[in-house]
Amino acid sequence: MKEQGLTSTGAYRYYGFEVTDVAIGKTAAVRYCEDQRKAYSKEIKTDKVRRTTPSDDDFILTTLQATKNSRGDWQVQTTSWKKADASCVQR
What we know:
By secondary structure, the protein is mainly beta.
């Protein structure tokens, strides 16, 4: 985004955190929702905010797959996103 002369502004809201799968304490799947209705791009040079019309695409479902390393730290291996997921959309 910065390469295009943009930054982000506004508010992101995260909710619905859930650990959906744990296998023998070594792997886990985590999911959560993100509401981007009040988040916008802003032009760095002019401070102009690029406001958008809210839509279902502003609701993102994020899923993380993590494994525990030899020190016991959780490390994310894969991340996936899905816009307008029905489990995240709020009216």
